[in-house]
Amino acid sequence: MSITKHNWTKEEIIAIYTKPMMDLLYEAATIHREHHDPNVVQVSTLLSIKTGGCSEDCGYCPQAKRYHTSIKTNDLMTVSEVKEQAEQAKSSGSSRVCMGAAWRNVKDGAEFDQVLEMVRTINKMDMEVCCTLGMITENQAQRLAEAGLYAYNHNIDTSEEYYKEVISTRGFEDRLETINNVRKTNITVCSGGIIGMGESIEDRAGMLVALSTLDPQPESVPINALVPVEGTPLEGEKLVEIWEMIRMVATTRIVMPETQVRLSAGRINMSREGQAMCFLAGANSIFSGDKLLTTPNNDVNEDMKMFEILGLKNQQPFAKVYQRETVEAIDSKFAPLGEKPKWSRPGHTIERNVEATVKGK
Q: Which pLDDT score is estimated for 12?
């Protein structure tokens, strides 16, 4: 049985990533089978509950209001609308609903109260519920935990060094602080990143260093391949080759053996054979449904056909971590504090982000 290591170095991870492919696959598949059933894959549905209008300048994101994209904005969905979407997701085989709102950070008030009610509603449906809402304080994390939140997603995106080449409106340390706030509750952590943004292999290794040296390591790590969107600063980047994705998945599996590694954005550009190689390399979670927030994704029926061909089974909800109890709003021990934390705004200039902003006007 392999022992989880928390002091990986960048050099060690690069050495793993650059191994001969067959050796890398064999090692990753062996470790995967030590910790997981290789024929079980967790299926999640990602739902954009509030789309567009974000104040951030993330170079990959079509929801940033400063860029000119074809994304249609919408206000926060109602609880009943979210429940209907969750029912559809459950009937199609998803065990988790992940709700994303295009916010820089959570603010106490009516909208956050509405999100808390969404969490309560989905948890009562015996589904895992995840949120990605931007930066959150410890008190806000505690309120989400009371509502029954299973997981909080807060991707670190890339290495700390390359982060400054992608985003200028928030700092890398804010990502880590939010993860730390979540860790003070019983909520599991979901945090990963994106490859294909022009980063180096050293940056990919740096991202895995940041994640694998967390103790405990994230329970879920999404590996996204950039989907270039017209109007964003990264619109001209080339699609990630499947071999890069396989290497990234395999390396992630080796350095984080107990984590669920999720094939996320960009899967629509992968063949069944390519996805099968990723599952062999240690991926054991996917997002299913026609959209991932705003970018296209694989059809549910197509995914189920692939599962049938490969002999894969859907993971049942709460198979890894127990279901959280739902505490009703009236019984909450944590009141809104109206906090106004000073999340960082580095303010440096990223030329391609500036150019995309000017182009969008």
A: 98
Out of 175, 262, 267, 324, the active site residue is 262
Of 170, 190, 247, 324, catalytic: 190
Known catalytic membership, residue 278? no
Catalytic site includes residue 131: no
For 313, phi then psi, to 5°, come to -120, 150
CB 314 within 8 A of CB 95: yes
Q: What is the pLDDT of residues 160-181, one digit of tens each?
A: 999 999 999 999 999 999 999 9
Buried b / exposed e along 179-190 (16+ C-beta atoms within 10 A): bebbbebbbbbb
> 189 has which bridge partners?
152
Q: Which residue in 61, 183, 253, 278 is the catalytic one?
A: 61
Distances 235 to 62, 166, 206, 245, 340 between C-alpha atoms, Å: 10, 13, 24, 19, 34
Do 125 and 90 touch, CB atoms closer than 8 A? yes
Beta strands 40-50 and 96-101, pairing class: parallel
- Alpha carbon distance 92, 301 (integer Å): 8
What number of helices (H) and strands (E) belong to the chain? Answer: 12, 12
Options 96, 130, 247, 324, the catalytic residue? 130
250-260 per-residue burial string, b: 16 or more CB within 10 A, e: under 16: bbbbbbbbbbb
What mean pLDDT is reported for the chain? 92
Q: Which helix (H) or strand (E) holds 153?
A: strand 151-153
Catalytic residue among 98, 120, 278, 324: 98
Give the global pTM.
0.94
